[in-house]
Design brief:
The complex is a heterotrimer of chains A (about 450), B (about 900) and C (about 160).
Chain A (H helix, E strand, L loop, with lengths): L17 H6 L4 H9 L2 H11 L11 H6 L10 E6 L8 H8 L1 H15 L3 E6 L4 H16 L15 E6 L9 H8 L23 E5 H5 L1 H13 L9 E8 L5 E6 L2 E2 H8 L9 E5 L8 E2 L6 E2 L1 H6 L8 E6 L4 H15 L5 H18 L7 H12 L7 H5 L1 H20 L4 H4 L13 E2 L3
Parallel strand pairs in A: 1-2, 1-4, 2-3, 5-11
Antiparallel strand pairs in A: 5-6, 7-10, 8-9, 8-11
Chain B lengths: L4 E5 L2 E5 L5 H7 L23 E7 L17 E3 L4 E2 L9 E4 L3 H16 L15 H9 L13 E2 L3 E2 L4 E3 L9 H10 L5 E3 L6 E3 L12 H6 L5 E3 L12 E6 L8 E7 L2 E7 L12 H5 L14 E4 L2 E4 L2 H19 L4 E5 L5 H14 L5 E2 L29 E5 L3 H4 L1 H12 L4 E6 L11 E4 L5 H14 L5 H7 L3 H10 L2 H8 L3 H12 L4 E5 L1 H4 L4 H14 L9 E4 L6 H6 L6 E2 L3 E2 L3 H11 L11 H6 L7 E5 L3 H4 L3 H10 L2 E6 L11 E4 L8 E4 L4 E5 L12 H11 L9 H11 L14 E2 L27 E6 L24 E3 L1 H6 L7 E5 L4 E8 L7 E5 L19 E6 L2
Parallel strand pairs in B: 1-6, 18-19, 18-27, 20-21, 20-23, 21-22, 23-24, 27-28, 28-29, 33-37, 34-36
Antiparallel strand pairs in B: 1-2, 3-4, 3-5, 3-6, 8-9, 9-12, 10-11, 13-14, 14-15, 16-17, 16-29, 25-26, 30-31, 31-32, 33-38, 35-36, 35-38
Chain C lengths: L4 H13 L7 H12 L4 H11 L3 H8 L13 E6 L2 H5 L2 H12 L12 E6 L11 E3 L2 E3 L4 H13 L1
Parallel strand pairs in C: 1-2
Antiparallel strand pairs in C: 1-3, 3-4
Helix pairs in contact in C: 1-2, 2-3, 3-4
Classes of the chains: A alpha/beta (about 450), B alpha/beta (about 900), C alpha+beta (about 160).
The structure holds flavin mononucleotide (FMN), iron/sulfur cluster and FE2/S2 (inorganic) cluster.
Iron/sulfur cluster binds next to helix 14 and helix 16 of chain A.
Chain lengths: ~450, ~900, ~160
């Protein structure tokens, strides 16, 4: 197994304690940076490392930081995106629960780099334990002088706050996150202005994913070259792949960028469970189009996955075997998107509602000729026409499954229902197809 | 001005100022881009996605130079995704395409999405015919639905958001116009979206109502039939109504409205845009006060008292009786034994005629329009332009509001003030004897002791002088009388002022500094000044303050009177005052008077007339006959007992009104009046802007327009009154009154007098230093005010307003009320030296200790029982009923 | 029930930590819910007053987030993740088991007021699916037998 960075020590049950963390070299990057490096130099290191955002879009982190206006009079903020809501993703949680100091150190370094004196970790509300771990780590780090006023005698001050969300996937979207953080409904904001110029409290703001920030101490300590030596040239470093579904050993696997899908699923994940055949793979979370067994040789880095017609996304690799019905899977994921749509824009609000009803109808055996075309047309009417990227994500399950498993849709329509009803008893975990009559008044 | 930006939209070249949105640019060249969520008065949202277009921008090389294609045209890089035109600002060389197949499909898509869950109940929807969803679907939408009916989302409906506004949630398209109106414009934040996704719906907080004085505007801007007006529901289809350009006569803002009439009935009023006055908004009082016009109680014929009974007669007989009645009184008691009081909600034409009838027909200056408002008691104020552009408030950077509850009294001015503060960053300095809704926007709040206004004002002058915040040299140089003011200021030390007003010297200092530091200071004063018996003294002090703030580069601070009625300014300009001639000229300007008399073909009386107050005091002695024109004296005169006595003492009373009011019931001759919708005429708003109101309804059978009745009466009295139309009256006004000169009556509507900018050149001599007197017997100061939904002849006859009309009550500081053992809602007796009333108590922490508030005319009692003319600061005692 | 003085102080402290007070709205609602089990209209009015907001503004925010409850729930809130990874790993069976065992449907509360059953979208624990969140705690790799033990413990204590 190649070099690990962010999950290197997560097997150590004591890792979350600051003493253990320091013993293993923790906070050395911080000490070094504060002593030897100017903020610009830290930005430069991260730029040279080629680190790209691990939150889904893969935007170059150093470049993002360099958009922050230079004017030192303007307050600026760092927001750590710990909303981890993309289904199938559970990497940030592991980092925060098991090695919180790694994230905290990354946050201090990044805040120093952009000149922020307040950093906020926006963590999804359900992660109560992770939030407690972070709070503890912050207390410990503050006690040791790594946080608070005049950090390590450098004159640099930083306050880190843990801010718990309250149940809304959309708040992972960076501008919705800011709205939520400011005490509003978590609905995305119009861009421009971008957060780099008008983010939190309309001040320059950097928003980075947990995994992204957790890589920063390594880069500062070992140099950008060491980081860039891992992974591919355009997608350097490691990536935590969250393996779930019908595999023998689900879990987080930190592997070099560009590791082939086959290796992730079969070598690390132990292959498909119960000797079944692999049927479909969602490579980067439900927001990314579906793969099939034919895609097993795709290398998991930003470019290769994109070239193969999907996206690396958050690195949530969901595996489905031959027992999984693709209409059902698409329905389940579309229900998720319907449930999480913020409701601000028309195509997403109504489109997800409509797709759920249509998929539910097909799955229940009441599909009609033309329903597949209708589904695709709804997708087309949403694609690129929604207010925020959520809308594009919401059509991925339908588009991906229809593309590769159209005959399964047709089968549902022809035979009047799902073949799983015969083979597996066809249990649907939920048939909640969304609101019909709501009280109102 | 910055250079224009050039772009093309569907190949049409467009040049617009930078910052223009593509939707606006397209509108300018007649290219239709459909919109729902976008509204030019609201911030761009980009949520409905209806306005998507293709956008491209010129490609630039590394050197920043525009790249060119093979034909030498700028190479355009089209953006990969469609863009919302409503959020996209134009840029140089931009290319916008609004008709490509992509755009057409996207539009259909959005419309289909909007319609899947829509109830499609257009046949029974009030919005039908003027619904954006209908119209845009008709133009751009899909022809049929692919969505099964049974799958539709349902909501409970309709829901009463308030007594005035009804909500149908299934029709709502979540465009957020209404909620943005609440948060961005009105600032009340009571209407919100709750839940999320497809479940999102509009709501108010459980158990509350959409309580806002501007709520009807959300009905106007709702692009579908989700928000509807209770008053208009099911009364007419949009295409059946005739629309007339009206001017709201209810308050001094003069909002522009569209009066909509069907089968001889006014079915609704909606806002008509006028950027300078009301932008796109009107208040709910203006919007919903119209059913009185359709009331069956309207007077349908003149009445003459015969054998003690008011009996219907012909107009000839009634007008003849009036002429004869007045002439008879004058024959025995002299010309000044008759007088007239006209409502300041009348049109300019009526007011002009009214005073002309008295001056040229009856030969007396006994005319007035003032009831509660007492300003201009002093001729000295005639020269002051106590008005300024409403729009100009947006540019003010420090605004002092003295004695006015702007949110209640002039909601449309409130909106400008809010804009000035919220968007323009103006500092709002509030000086009020009691808390108001505006307080939350205030930068500084001065809660002064009622009655100490002049002290407060001279305190500010003192602070300006002693802190060296004014240019004394400039003041001495430019204006007469600075020395007097300066020395009188010295007599009022800040400590004295502090004692009199109850304000800390620091607060006065901070206010003075905020005013002095402003580039564009403005001073506004409201009803608590205008309706005071010593209003003239306070206003002079304010005028002095405005002068002290003068700077060589911009002159004095602007001084604006809020308050009073829809056409108070017109009434003043037109000389419905005992000591001023039309055209704002003092009566003793002999030359002017002579010229006017010559124009009118009559010798005009020289003797100053009596104002309302004196006419009523002299009723039965000097004054024997009165003509009340649209005035319900018993209800609206602040000293109820005096009005009662006066009517009792008169020999001859003429009342002209829409209804048989308590006052009209006492008259000898009653003439039916008409509503503003039946009038063709002009009004002058608080800015001095003359605006034209078009007639929307014909006259009922047997009704004569006021102008015609007055003309006939004038002729009967032997004057030169042969007008054939209100237009002819206006023409005469333009001819004989310098102030109206040049007024183009066809173009009228956006006219502001050129002379309204006259400048004050002298200080008023320092005036009496007001200090409220204590009175053991009556421990509370009584504040009287006009609540937003005050009860009057009109509002009490609009059924829809029933639930919202202000209840009569006494508002007290909660602690003081509790100390007296008065719970919320309990009835207490309030008595003054004039009289007493029993009213329910309302706890209100906006009332400072020692001060109680009572609305002048609530739904069930009239506070004019508690007031008499001699009271400068009314005082009362509160006692618990046994 | 009124917000406790302690909660009030905590809210104000949080509000003062951030450049804009309103940031503390979500934490305040969470605190209020922790204290009272759900967000009654009365508590929303109180919270609104602390932030100088209208109750409607607070309602708009509260209703957006699924973890904030406007209605009381049972003593223990059982939330079964039914998103795809969990569904692929037996969440459906688990849910059926819970329904039968508790005798209630999704969104309902047992008559004794002990348990409320809900389904939720991905809890971020897909590597250890199926997962059920009970109150603040995650129960991972759950089987029907394992959940029995948990329920017994909760019912007992
Ligand atoms: C609907 C939606 C949900 C998202 N959820 C998350 C999330 O849970 N965690 C996250 O880190 N990024 C999420 N993102 C991506 C963020 O918007 C943002 O790009 C990211 O936090 C940037 O950090 P990075 O540059 O470090 O990746 C989401 C984006 C969208 C459109
Ligand atoms: S696409 Fe639209 S409705 Fe969906 S989450 Fe984004 S803004 Fe909200
Ligand atoms: S009008 Fe542009 S998105 Fe609504």
């Amino acid at each position: 197994m190649g070099e690990k960075i962010v999950l290197r020590y997560t097997d150590d049950p004591e890792q979350s304690d600051i003493a253990t963390y320091i013993r293993k070299g923790g906070y050395q990057a911080l000490a070094r940076a504060l002593k030897e490096l100017s903020p610009e130099a830290v930005v430069d290191l991260v730029k040279r490392s080629g680190l790209r955002g691990r939150g889904g879009a893969g935007f170059p982190t150093g470049l993002k930081w360099s958009f922050i206006p230079k004017d030192p009079a303007l307050p600026r903020y760092l927001c750590c995106n710990a909303d981890e809501g993309e289904p199938g993703t559970f990497k940030d949680r592991e980092i925060m629960e098991k090695d919180p100091h790694e994230l905290i150190e990354g946050i201090i370094l990044s805040s120093y780099a952009i000149g922020a004196h307040l950093a906020v970790i926006y963590i999804r509300g359900e992660f109560a334990y992770a939030a407690r771990q972070l709070e503890k780590a912050i207390r410990q780090a503050t006690a040791k002088g790594y946080l608070g006023r005049n950090i390590l005698g450098s004159g640099y001050d930083l306050d880190v706050a843990v801010y718990r969300g309250a149940g809304a996937y959309i708040c992972g979207e960076e501008t919705a996150l800011l709205e939520s953080l400011e005490g509003y409904r978590g609905q995305p904001r119009l861009k421009p202005p971008f957060p780099a110029t008008a983010g939190l409290y309309r001040k320059p703001t950097v928003i980075n994913n947990v995994e992204t920030l957790a890589n920063v101490p390594y880069i500062v300590l070992n140099g950008p070259e060491a980081f860039a030596a891992i992974g591919t040239s355009r997608s350097p470093g490691t990536k935590v792949f969250c393996l779930s579904g019908h595999v023998k050993r689900p879990g987080n696997y930190e592997l070099p960028m560009g590791t082939p899908l086959r290796e992730i699923i079969f070598e690390h994940g132990g292959g498909v469970r119960d000797g079944k055949q692999l049927k479909a793979i969602i490579p980067g979370g439900p927001s990314t189009p579906t793969f099939t067994a034919a895609h097993l040789d795709v290398n998991m880095d930003f470019e290769s996955v994109a070239a193969a017609g999907s996206m690396l996304g958050s690195g949530a690799v969901m595996v489905m075997d031959e027992t999984a019905c693709m209409v059902w899977a698409a329905l389940r994921l579309t229900e998720f998107f319907r449930h999480e749509s913020c409701g601000k824009c028309t195509p997403c609000r109504e489109g997800t509602y409509w797709m759920v009803r249509l998929l539910g109808r097909i799955e229940a055996g009441q599909g009609q000729d033309g329903d597949i075309e209708l589904l695709l047309d709804i997708c087309d009417n949403m694609a690129g026409k929604c207010f925020c990227p959520f809308g594009d994500a919401a059509i991925a399950p339908v588009q991906g499954t229809v593309k590769h498993f159209r005959e399964e849709y047709q089968g549902h329509i022809r035979r009047g229902g799902c073949w799983r009803h015969e083979t597996t008893g066809g249990r649907l975990p939920t048939t909640d197809q969304g609101p019909r009559v709501t009280p109102g008044a | 001005m910055a250079a224009l930006v050039n772009l093309t939209i569907d190949d049409v070249p467009v040049s617009v100022p930078p910052g223009t949105l593509v939707t606006e640019a397209a509108r300018g060249v007649g290219i239709d881009i459909p919109i729902f969520c976008s509204h030019r008065k609201l911030s761009p949202l980009g949520a409905c996605r209806m306005c998507v277009v293709e956008v491209g921008t010129p490609q630039r090389g590394k050197d920043g130079q525009m790249e060119r294609d093979a034909r030498g045209q700028p190479a355009i890089a089209m953006m990969p995704k469609l863009q919302t035109a409503c959020t996209t600002e134009v840029s140089e060389g931009m290319v916008v395409l609004t008709q490509t197949p992509e755009v057409v499909k996207a539009r259909r898509g959005v419309l289909e999405f909007l319609l899947i869950n829509h109830p499609l109940d257009c046949p029974v929807c009030d919005k039908g015919g003027e619904c954006d969803l209908q119209d845009i679907t008709y133009k751009y939408g899909p022809g049929k639905s692919r969505f099964p009916l049974a799958d539709k989302r349902h909501f409970v409906k309709p829901v009463d958001l308030s007594p005035l506004i009804v909500l149908d949630r299934e029709r709502c398209i979540a465009c957020q116009r209404c909620t943005r109106f609440c948060s961005e414009i009105a600032g009340d934040n009571v209407l919100v979206f709750v839940e999320r996704g497809a479940l999102t719906y509009l709501d108010v907080f459980p158990g509350r109502t959409y309580d806002c004085k501007l709520s009807g505007n959300t009905v106007d801007i709702c692009p579908v039939g989700a928000l509807t007006s209770r008053a208009f529901r099911f009364r007419a289809r949009a295409w059946e109504v005739e629309r007339y350009n009206g001017i709201c006569p209810l308050c001094s803002c003069g909002c522009n409205t569209s009066v909509q009439v069907r089968s001889g009935q006014v079915v609704r009023l909606v806002a008509r845009e006028n950027e300078a006055v009301n932008e796109a908004w009107i208040c709910d009082k203006g919007r919903f006060t119209y059913d009185y016009i359709n009331s069956a109680e309207r007077l349908r014929s003149p009445l003459v008292r015969k054998g003690g009974v008011l009996t219907p007669v012909s107009w000839d007989e009634a007008l003849g009786a009036i002429a004869a009645g007045f002439r008879a009184l004058q024959a025995t008691n002299g010309p000044d034994s008759v007088g007239g009081i006209a409502s300041s909600r009348s049109t300019n034409e009526e007011l002009y005629l009214f005073q002309k009838v008295f001056r040229a027909g009856l030969g007396t200056n006994n005319v007035d329009h003032r009831l509660k408002e007492c300003w201009y008691e002093d001729d000295g104020l005639l020269g002051l332009p106590l008005s300024g552009p409403i729009q100009g408030l947006e540019k003010a950077d420090a605004i002092l509001v003295l004695g006015g509850d702007v949110a209640q009294e002039q909601p449309i001015v409130f909106l400008r003030l809010r804009k000035a503060v919220v968007r323009g960053g103006a500092r709002l300095l509030l000086a009020n004897p009691k808390g108001t809704e505006l307080d939350r926007l205030a930068h500084l709040w001065l809660g002064y002791r009622y009655g100490s206004e002049t002290a407060l004002i001279y305190g500010l002058v003192n602070a300006l002088v002693s802190e060296g915040l004014c240019s004394e040299e400039h003041l001495a140089d430019r204006f007469l009388g600075w020395e007097v003011v300066r020395s009188s200021v010295e007599e009022h030390t800040l400590e004295q002022v502090s004692r009199a007003t109850g304000l800390k010297p620091e607060a006065l200092g901070a206010t003075a500094r905020a005013l002095a530091g402003a580039a564009n200071p403005a001073i506004l004063f409201g009803n608590q000044i205008v309706q005071r018996s010593n209003a003239d003294v306070i206003i002079k002090a304010l005028a002095n303050l405005a002068l002290v703030l003068a700077r060589p580069e911009r002159g004095p601070a602007s001084l604006m009177a809020l308050g009073a009625n829809g056409n108070s300014q017109g009434a003043m300009y037109l000389g419905v005052l005992p000591t001023a001639l039309p055209g704002r000229r003092p009566l003793d300007d002999g030359e002017y008077r002579a010229r006017l008399g010559a124009d009118w073909g009559a010798a005009l009386p020289e003797q100053p007339g009596l104002g309302t107050r004196k006419m009523l005091s002299e009723a039965g002695s000097k004054v024997k006959g009165l003509y009340l024109f649209g005035v319900d004296l018993l209800s609206d005169y602040p000293d109820g007992a005096k009005a009662e006595r006066a009517l009792e003492a008169l020999d001859f009373l003429v009342v002209q009104d829409l209804f048989l009011t308590p006052t009209a019931a006492r008259a000898d001759v009653v003439l039916p009046g008409t509503s503003f919708v039946e009038k063709e005429g002009t009004y002058t708003n608080l800015e001095g802007r003359v605006q034209r109101n078009a007639r929307g309804l014909g006259l009922q059978e047997g009704i004569m327009a006021e102008w015609q009745a007055l003309s006939t009466l004038g002729s009967e009295l032997g004057g030169d009154f042969g007008y054939a139309s209100p237009g002819e009256i206006r023409e005469e006004m333009a001819l004989v009154l310098p102030w109206y000169r040049g007024l183009d009556f066809e173009a009228i509507g956006f006219f502001t007098s050129k002379e309204s900018g006259e400048n004050q050149r002298r200080f008023f001599p320092g005036e009496r230093f007001g200090v409220p007197v204590e009175d053991e017997g009556f421990p509370f100061i009584l504040l009287l005010g006009e609540p937003f939904y005050s009860t009057d002849t009109f509002s009490s006859r609009c059924p829809v307003l029933g639930p919202v009309l202000a209840r009569s009550r006494i508002e007290m500081n909660p602690r003081e009320a509790s100390a007296l053992g008065l719970m919320e809602g309990e009835v207490a007796r309030v008595s003054s030296s004039a009289g007493e009333l029993s009213l329910p108590v309302r706890h209100n922490s906006d009332c400072p200790p020692g001060t109680v508030y009572i609305p002048w005319r609530g739904s069930d009692a009239n506070a004019n029982r508690l007031f008499h003319d001699g009271m400068e600061v009314p005082r009362v005692k509160i006692s618990v009923l046994p | 029930m009124m917000l406790s003085e302690r909660a009030r102080e905590e809210i104000i402290k949080t509000a003062e930590r951030f450049p804009e007070r309103r940031t503390a709205l979500l934490p305040a609602l969470r605190l209020a819910q922790d204290e009272q089990g759900y967000l009654s209209s009365q508590v929303l009015v109180e919270v609104a007053a602390i932030f100088e907001l209208t109750p409607a503004e607070v309602e708009a925010v509260a209703s957006f987030y699924t973890m904030l409850k406007r209605r009381p729930t049972g003593k223990h809130l059982i939330q079964v993740c039914t998103n795809l990874p969990c569904a692929l790993s037996g969440a459906g069976e688990l849910l059926d088991h819970l329904k039968a065992r508790l005798g209630i449907g999704v969104g309902e509360t047992t008559p004794d007021g002990l348990f409320t059953l809900e389904t939720v979208e991905c809890l971020g624990s897909c590597g250890t699916a199926p997962v059920v969140q009970i109150d603040e705690d995650y129960h991972e790799n759950l089987s029907a037998e394992a959940i029995e033990a948990v329920l017994a413990r909760l019912a007992g204590g």
